[in-house]
Each structure stands twice: as structure tokens, then as C-alpha cells.
Amino acid sequence: MPTDYVSADKGYNSEIFRENIINQGAEVITPKKINTLTNNDHMDGYMYKTRHLVKNAFARLKHLRDIATRYDKLKQHYENNVALACVYIWLKL
Asked: Which of 37, 72, 74, 76 is exposed most, by the fewest CB atoms within 10 A?
């Protein structure tokens, strides 16, 4: 399944990186650095904001010790624990 968007930090702001993503058929949602001559009109602000939400969700998951260290041996058990942790975070228990 091809990727539609690639969202990254300003550190991945090289033209080679952008060209590779565009050649593979995806849209680049990476803000340009302050010292570049062009502006960020190419970027979809809503998609970049959702990237921030996903990043925060992973940061919250890392606070749960059993998820961060992956004590479960089986993949299915780990996936179930991650899903349960996401529900726990979403419900704010």
C-alpha cells in the first residue's frame, strides 16, 4: 500500500529528501527551515497538526512501563496491551 503523505521534522528539510518522496508518489508535509528563502505555503497545516497528536500519543504510551519495555513474548499479547493502553489514555482514567 503506497503512502500518501510523509510528515517529518524540520531536520529532514533537504531537497534530496523531498525529491525522493515526491518521486515515490507521496506528498511532503515537512516545514522548511527559517533560513530558507521559500515559505511554507506548500504544507498542509491540518496534516502537520495531526502529526503532533500522534507524537503525543506515543509519548504517553512510553510512560507505561510494560508497553515501553515490551514484557510480552507474543506479538498478539503486545498488540492487545497497546490497544488497551490507548483506550486507557483516550478515556483519561
From this structure: 37
